[in-house]
Amino acid sequence: MRAVFLGILLLFESSVYALMEITFKGEIRDFAVGNGTVFVVTDSQLLQLRHDLVEEKHRDISNRTHPIQVNILLPFEANQTLITCGTSDCGYCEVLDINDITRIIHRESIEVGPSVNKSAAAFLVDFKNGGSTESYMLVSREISDDNDGYITFRNTLDSQTGGIFSKIDSESQDGVIKTQRDVEWVDGFQSSSSSHSYLLVNIKSKEDPAVVVLQMNNSRSKADMIRSLKGARLHCCEDKPRPKLLSSSPVLSSDSPLLWAGIFTAGKEHDPEDTALAVFNLSQLQNTVPPEFSCTPLCAAKKEKHVLNLLVEVFKHRSMTAVVAEQKGSWIMFYIGTANGQLMKIVLDKALSSCATMLYRSDDDRMVFPRMYFDPVDRQYIYIALKNQIRRVSVTQCNMFLTLKDCRASQDPSCGWCLTTRKCSTEANCSNSAWISISEDSFQKELISFQVNEVSTKVTLNLYLNVKATQKLPITCNFTEGDENLCDSVNDFPKCTCNISKERLPVNATATVTIGDQKITERLALRICPNISGTTSYARCVVCVSVHCQWSSSSNECSWTDESEPKAHIENMCEDISKGHTPQMFSLKPSNVSFLGKYNAVLKGSNLTLVRKIRFQGLQECTSMEVPVLESSNVSLRFNIPSGNKGTVKVCVVTADGRCHGNITMKYGSRPTCTGLQPKTSWASGMRNISVFGQHLEFVDAIFFNSTLKEIPLNLNQPSQNKTLFPSEKTEYKGSFYVKLRVGNSTVECQDYITYYPDPEFYNFTTSKVDKDVLVTIQKKEDELNITKDEMMVWAVHKGNNTWLNKCVIDKVQSTAVICKITDMKESVNTLKVEIGNYSTFLKTQSGPQYLYILVALIILILIGALVGVFVHRKSKQQMSAQMNERLELLENEIRNEIRQGFVDLQTEKSDLVENVGAIPYLDYKHFALKIFFPEGGPIASSMIKDIGQVAVKIEADEKCQAFSALIRDQMFLTCFIHALEQQKNFSIKDKCAVASLLTVALHGDLPYLTQLMEDLLQSLMDQPSNAQPKLLLRRTESIVEKLLTNWMSICLYGFLRESVGQQLFLLVSALTQQISKGPVDAVTEKALYTLNEDWLLWQAQGFNFSSLRLNVLFAVGTEGEVSEPLEVNTLTCDTIEQVKEKILLTFQRKFGFCYTQQQREIDIEYEKEGTYVPLEEVDGSSVVQGDVTMLNTLQHYQIPDGACIKVKTKKVHAPLSPQTSLKDDQNFSIKYFHLIDPDIDRDESNHPERKKLKLKEIYLTKLLSTKVAVHSFVENLFRSIWGMPNNKAPLAVKYFFDFLDAQAEKKKIMDPDVVHIWKTNSLPLRFWVNILKNPNFVFSDLEKTPHLDSCLSVIAQAFMDSFSLTDQQLGKHAPTNKLLYAKDIPQFKQEVKTYYKLVRDQPTASGQDFKTFLQDESKKHENEFNESAALRELYKYMYRYYSEIIQELEQKEASSKLKEEMHRIKELFEDMKRTVWN
Q1: How far is Cα 1398 from Cα 939, in angstroms, rounded to an integer?
Q2: How confident is the model at residue 9 (pLDDT cuts 50, 70, 90)?
Q3: Most distant CA atoms of the chain, gap in Å
Q4: Residue 1165's closest CA among 1234, 1221, 1115?
Q5: Nearest-CA neighbor of 263 among 332, 338, 348, 172?
Q6: CA–CA dist 165, 179 (Å, integer)
Q7: Distance (Å, rounded) from C-alpha 558 to C-alpha 530?
Q8: What is the pLDDT averaged over residues 559-566?
Q9: Where residue 1457 falls among pLDDT bands split at 50, 70, 90?
Q10: Where are the beta strands (DSSP E) in 256-319?
Q11: Is 893 or 395 the better-scoring residue by pLDDT?
């Protein structure tokens, strides 16, 4: 299990959103990390989680009488305790066991923390006490009505002076630092060397708000620490004051100087740059105390306002809320949480330049909690809190990048290219190999840069690779023009130099850099710099810089590059001289979109015909996005907005010279959600207004149903974020359909679905006069539409000219009637028009007498018809008597001759079946397993295996599947999952088989666990009351475990099948095929003279006047009429042309060991007659026709003699007269054509038995025996290979499972040996071997199992199972022939089976470890062959369908709450985290 868990962690690490998550019942109030554990405080609970967020312990802290608020949470790792303080009816503090928070070590009532809803900062302060290290608890709390605001130091041990939680020090002084003004405590920490402690606090003041940092020297004496107080105000920032701190973090691994980072806000919510990330050097604090604080005992420093200026302003954003930072070498990494649920990574280089990348983006707008922590076990992960959820997010995205170029372009110093593994990874994951990463001086530079210098008559081209490596690397550079090499480069990592003669210029060169298996190609144009010309200075400058020359802005001339100067960008170098008309931007619609993007945005401006692309640049993001222009004019552009990160981005337009013009801001918002529909029904004709409820609906482009791809555009004038309307579509389908919202290139599913019902039905109407008004009552059929009066319109129609008279105002709509009123109506109402959406109908008053006349006419016709049938019956009996006498005389002679001929054939027939078939075409393991697991095939089955070239599953799917994979490896959950499904009445046998096979695929990589699961389920099955008759166990596949057993046997016995049984099975199938084809086979019904199954015996054929023919077959091998050497082929005179082709190709394959180059459909055959070739066809103008039925042509029809020469040639391609390429493609083939069986026999034998030609099936039963004798040796060899024991050992899986059944029988005290025999028979022969015997196509490729072959194999399989039966069957003359065929062989087979069972039982027991090793080897052998993710996605559908039933089963089994929470988490992953990245 540990290995599986580690594997899951590694897979998670490879994902962009490589995270785990846990959701809590209430909102998170605080969380902390310590001792490799995560501690979380919610409204009602204190929880202890493993570092991977699996719950270990929890305590309920809710109290209805006195609400509890935990406001101090401190893991004390050195003491292995957890300190918590809070408020209840009064203040309290507790010391808990850090390994088990349910165990309270100490508790006392004491007011340490702040009052309810007031701020505090608390952390441990370490100091030296002799040779050991001890700690105090520094607590700062906000002032309230009940408490003063102060800073104190509390004991953490009872052995310290004054006891635990005392603030008295060794000098018996009650030291304290008080606040003179109202403050808000934000954070506190001690330096990594434990020498200083720091507090961050906001001064609340309307006139003079400020952020203050306080510093104290750590000491054993609390008084000394208080005296050492000093501090300063932190100034941020230059563009605007931001006087409030939201979150803070020291820069880890940095102590001298101590760098600190904070998120500052100006308090202007809608300002896109409201918050700023700033870095300060806290080692520059002066010896002053801010006047807002006073010390007891007195502070040593003087009170004075001192302002500390920032070191660098790193990043500005609309709504940052959290920061944590660390330093790696010269790089500083900042991890930033935002108010709209994003986690960003910002990298700061030694030159203090930075850029940001996105690590996580939530669908909604839940704020990231101000505190974040690194995973204490694996610092490659970070914890973030979102309202009621904690997520574990990977801090790198290395595995996203598949090439060195992409890895370097990520601008992440943590990611580099590992030369040995050929992957983008962290340096820790690249051991014993060169690791190539971004160099410190090339941050935000291109991977490759060039310089061109003039050296005498040559031009020197220098190529620089802007990377660094952990060791010297071989590098190869090639500079070419087309296929011609321009020079022999001098390579010295990371630089290559190429000297080119000036005579070769100008040239368009291609530079290819090779490092290991990575090739990086760049194109560049080389020109003679001083010779560059252009119509304007700007044009010359653009060309000059683009070909790596140097532009002089003073002289407006182009020259060779000075090697010491870096390459300039066109937009920087040429910006000052740009003149003329440049594009300008006025507006962008829409300017607020979802992070999923938007179709068909429109930008208004001027001079826009010059624009080629639109660029989107996030604030200080490392990379920008560019999209093409779809439509353009001088004043507008149409384009698609790509997906992005939530927040504000800058939009500019890119012209052909690469410059970006203009600057318009656009905001990315959250993903829309759809929480409901109203109403949830519609009539079939559509046009019913449906309200959609949700969030951020203003970002939705269109709505569509899953029954049609037709989209319904939304009304763009609906500004509401929470509600929108759309009209339902007309549809021919009835039923319930999910509604989806299209947002950009993605879709969002609604929680509700819409149900279509037939259009409403209105029958007629009645009217009544009320004063001057007419009251109309319309009768309607009751339906489920719940139509409102606002959705319906009714008009009275004038009788004559079909024009509207008046509107009928609807008063009430009932289930079976509609009542409306027409005002000021003088005329009578004869016709109404009713309109609902797109549906309309006319109702007219009915007139009655005409229906009575029609009824009378029908009665008269019925009476007349009753008199017609009396005179028909008496004329049919006289014709049969004369015919019967003649037929009886012929019957005796016919039967006598056919019985004698059958006896002669049985005694004289030779068995010349071929036993050497060459190489056996086995299916590989994964395709064999697929046919066993999913015998019906289909798209689900095909998705279960990974074939070469298959596209990898998207990362988002893997995240969900990995979590589900971990869940099903919890045996308690999986057994409850299976039992819950099987208890449902609508869970069919087909569903059970599907679930079993999906589980087999999903757990194929962990066969030991699958085996343990199967054993537990089998024991549960045996214990069920319904299995009171143990002999019936495992007889059918009526449960998941029974199908699971079939799959398990197939996995474990595949090797034995190939090594010991496969050859004998293939020989038997080949022998059967040859034996069937030795005699006549009807091409239409496929019945044959030689068969094992009575139902497929060809006994109706009219005269078996057939004989053998040997044909000399030539194959056309050239275009000039050349032919091959003749091939002798045995055929029958009664063979059709297609049967002759089939025998030719089979003979070719047997002789040469490979198939002919053309298939049967692609060849024609011709008969050489008197020097010319006559084409032979299945049907032609000479075919015999009986009524409407055509007889297929045979060799006898064409009078082909023995030894005739037949030529095989490729079909000529002509426009066909019919769409079929073969007669059998016609679905009416068996009706239009016949072969050996006269059509009159099958068609009329039931109604006219006298038309039979008196063929008796019993005469030909000797042919069954003849076939059985011919293949009997093959059957015996096959059976004995199955129950044989190579090296006197049964397969390990058979021995293991039989021992398991023996143990279960002993455990249940079953003394009858027959029961165990039946269990073993139902488990192995019935569940596995019979499946293989009847389906050899599961084992061999290119094997066509015809219905006739299938019937013969069924007879053999029946004999096989009879060999395992314990009862002796009494067979009489009425017994089935398939039983009689092997009646004499079964006793011998039974004896061999009993011996086999005994030998297996007496064989030494296999150790559990040996069998576990065998299973692990099988898993490893096929570890990359199955698509486990696809299986898990299909399994999730069952979990989703029966979610509540599974939860109920878990509760009944008293499973841990974390299983239900994990189920809920996985459901959210699948349902709510569907992302599509659209560019």
Answers
A1: 44
A2: very low
A3: 141
A4: 1115
A5: 338
A6: 21
A7: 5
A8: 67
A9: confident
A10: 259-265, 275-281, 288-289, 293-296, 302-303, 307-309, 312-317
A11: 395
